[in-house]
Arsenate reductase ArsC
Amino acid sequence: MMKKPVRIYFLCIQNRCRSQIAEAFAKHYGGEHVIVESAGLEPHDIHPLTLKVMSEVRIDLSGNTSKKIDMKYFIASNVIVKLCQQVAERCPIVPFGITSVEWDIEDPLLSNDIQSVRHARDTIQKKVIELLKGLNVPI
């Protein structure tokens, strides 16, 4: 019998780069073993550099939209991953009983430089794989 999929919610401020990348990698590696969403406190359109760096690793985000945090999904999650920089950005408080993970990744779009977005993508990819392994999700 297959165990229930792990529900993971990736959050950052604008849901236009970091959390979108994390959601895409988690779906890519976790498949049917995960239910993954991402959202932001102040959603903005997905940034063109986000689309470009993900297309470089053959993941198409062009159909994705930026979403505002959905409290029902938030509360139903098993794991909430915050990709915001705690010092510079407001991150939501995670309720008791839900695993909260903080990755503290600086917004690579601040520099508007594709290299920093690529660097963030590669960092997030490694962290997603570690997270899924830690949750015993087959990759």
